[in-house]
Amino acid sequence: TYVTSDMISRSLHWSGIEPHEAYLYGGGLALAFQLYVEVEDAFHPELGFSVGDAAADIAGAAFPALKQHYPLFKPVTIKWSAIPSVRYNRGEYRTLLDDYESQYYWLSVNIEDALGDACPTIIPSFLNLAVGYGVKNLDGQGNGTPELYLSLDCDFTRLPGEGSFLSALKHILNYIHCPAPTVRLSPEITFYGVRF
């Protein structure tokens, strides 16, 4: 929902709508679409309505507007990554988007923006620190094994290069967590040289 909200909002702003209104409409349209999906799930015999999914949809739809209006949120970006799960590789899902065990969600914070003047000059402006969440062993009843990660990340919008096409490309790439050194904090500590 975050990506949909952000893309609609940016498109509306690009077309001439004032930022405040663009982000309000973008969030509303993204939320309406995604809540439609949640209501459809409610009538599916194997899925049902998920309060957690609906709450995540609301947060994702609102986040681009929060970034525009509240400085606290400006250094934070929501990102996504995927590593095919065992169940996906067995053919139990058509796409990675259908398989929650393949997906990871990240809150990525730009270190320079978060620390401000206290940021050491040795830290590059594109360097982020990300906290990630994934889940394994889903049983279809809402139970599973949550996983928590800490990783370096890249703010693609801070990489060199100008122009409208390159700026748009960097913004789109910034929806994806950059493969980087990562530590899984739970259920047990595991170090990864590079993890997507």
Key features of this structure:
globular, 2 domains, six-stranded antiparallel sheet, alpha+beta, 196 residues
What order do the SSEs take from the amino end to the carboxyl end, as H and E? HHHEHEHEEHEE
Terminal Cα span: 21 Å
C-alpha Rg, in Å?
18 Å
What structural category arises from helix and sheet content? alpha+beta
Share of helix, binned: 25-40%
How large a portion of the residues is in β-strands, by DSSP E?
Answer: 15-25%
Strands in their spatial order, largest beta sheet? 1-2-3-4-5-6
Compute the number of strand runs. 6
Q: Rough shape?
A: globular
Figure out the total of helices: 6
Number of self-contained structural domains: 2
Which residues sit in consecutive blocks of at least 5 with pLDDT less than 50?
Answer: none
Mean of residue pLDDT values = 94
Q: Biggest β-sheet: count, sense, barrel?
A: 6 strands, antiparallel
